[in-house]
C-alpha cells in the first residue's frame, strides 16, 4: 500500500524536463493549443504548468523570484537540447502544426536507428517551441533486422 505522499506522485514521470520560457502564456498556448498537451496541474500565479501528452511530461516556467538558472538566457533558450516525444500519429500532429502556422525545423521523415541487431523505425518531425527548444515527435513504425 502506498502512503498518501507517494500516491501524490503516482502519475508523474521519473524524469521530467522543466523548460524556462520567456512568455508563459504564449508557451502554454503553444503546448496546449498547437501540440495538444494538457495541464496536469499549474500555478498560474508563479507562471508554472506541468503538462502531459500521451504519457510524455514536461514543465514550463517563466521565472520570477526563484529560478534555477546556471547562466545567461539568450535566445534561443533550447540550444543543445533535443527532446524526443513519442506520439501515436506523427503525420496528424505535423499537419496540426502546419495548420497553426508553425514552421517545421525538419519535415516528416521515416528513419531507422540500429539497436544491436535490430533497426527501430520511427516516423518523426521536428519543431521549435517559442523559445527555441527543439521538439522531435516520433511515432513507432516497427522493427526490422539489420
Gyration radius, to the nearest Å? 17 Å
Secondary structural class: alpha/beta
Regions with little confidence, pLDDT below 50 for 5+ residues: none
Mean pLDDT, to the nearest integer, reads: 92
Shape: globular
Strand line-up of the largest beta sheet: 1-4-3-2
> Percent of residues in helical segments?
10-25%
Number of helices: 3
Tell me what portion of residues adopts beta-strand conformation: 35-45%
> What is the total tally of β strands?
8
Major sheet summary line: 4 strands, mixed
Q: Give the quaternary arrangement of the chains.
A: single chain
Q: What is the ordering of alpha helices and beta strands?
A: HEHEEEEHEEE
How far do the termini sit from each other?
Answer: 45 Å
Tags for this model:
single chain; 146 residues; alpha/beta; 4-stranded mixed beta sheet; 3 helices
Can you walk me through this structure?
The termini are far apart. The protein is of the alpha/beta class and 146 residues long. It has three helices and eight strands.
Put the structure in a nutshell.
By secondary structure, the protein is an alpha/beta fold. It contains three helices and eight strands. It has helices spanning 4-7, 24-34, 90-99, and strands at 18-20, 38-43, 48-53, 56-61, 82-86, 104-115, 118-128, 134-145.
Give the topology.
Blueprint: H1 4-7, E1 18-20, H2 24-34, E2 38-43, E3 48-53, E4 56-61, E5 82-86, H3 90-99, E6 104-115, E7 118-128, E8 134-145
Parallel strand pairs: 1-4, 5-8
Antiparallel strand pairs: 2-3, 3-4, 6-7, 7-8
